[in-house]
């Protein structure tokens, strides 16, 4: 069964595009994009286990850290850079988001919204860090180090001069719902948020195999 956020990403990516999936895990999304949209896909994954699982699927994925290794890619190497449910686990989200839109014409970014009503209610009623469907891991075991709200993300995008081309929200297992992220109500309603982002006119792309070093597999 395809995850609903994957369905939305699949809808946003045009066929045959060059795609970098950052924090690609075991490669489920990258494999889906390759099969359904025939993308020229690459992956960057921090865990050795994830890289091995991706390679077993026949995907071009290498081990690397988004906080450091995105810096090595030339400008506009890709049509899309995807960061699915990973931004909040990076050490420097501002830098990572900036780099995504340097190396790709567009970025697709999703994250759990810490402003969702269930999170607020858990804090008010229990006085403890919440665990929800979007944030299921207890505070002492979670990889998330920079949780943010929808409003926080919009403020960061504005500060970076990033344009929001499309935005959607998810709650539970329901399908994507188009949202106006500037509406205060959406910061309460949206359990998980997904954005298609860009910055200015697309620049000339560089072939992925032109990247120096071992970050990409031609």
Automatic annotation (TrEMBL):
InterPro entries according to UniProt: Methionine_synth_MetW, SAM-dependent_MTases_sf
SUPFAM superfamilies: S-adenosyl-L-methionine-dependent methyltransferases
Record-given protein name: Methionine biosynthesis protein MetW
Coiled coil: none
Domain of life: Bacteria
Gene symbol of the encoding locus: metW
């Amino acid at each position: 069964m395809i995850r609903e956020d994957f369905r939305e990403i699949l809808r946003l990516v045009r066929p045959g595009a060059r795609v970098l999936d950052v924090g690609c895990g075991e490669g489920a999304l990258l494999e889906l994009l390759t099969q359904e949209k025939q993308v020229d896909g690459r992956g960057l994954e921090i865990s050795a286990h994830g890289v091995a699982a991706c390679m077993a699927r026949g995907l071009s994925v290498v081990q690397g850290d988004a906080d450091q290794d995105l810096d090595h890619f030339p400008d506009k190497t890709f049509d899309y850079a995807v960061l699915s449910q990973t931004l909040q686990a990076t050490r420097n989200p501002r830098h990572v988001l900036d780099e995504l839109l340097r190396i790709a014409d567009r970025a697709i970014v999703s994250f759990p919204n810490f402003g969702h009503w269930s999170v607020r209610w858990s804090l008010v009623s229990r006085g403890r860090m919440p665990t929800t469907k979007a944030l299921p891991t207890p505070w002492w075991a979670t990889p998330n180090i920079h949780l943010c709200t929808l409003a926080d993300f919009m403020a960061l995008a504005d500060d970076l001069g990033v344009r929001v081309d499309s935005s959607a929200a998810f709650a539970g297992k329901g399908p994507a719902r188009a949202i106006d992220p500037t509406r205060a109500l959406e910061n309460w309603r949206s359990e998980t948020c997904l954005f298609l982002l860009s910055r200015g006119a697309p620049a000339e792309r560089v072939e992925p195999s032109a990247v120096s070093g071992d970050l990409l597999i031609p």
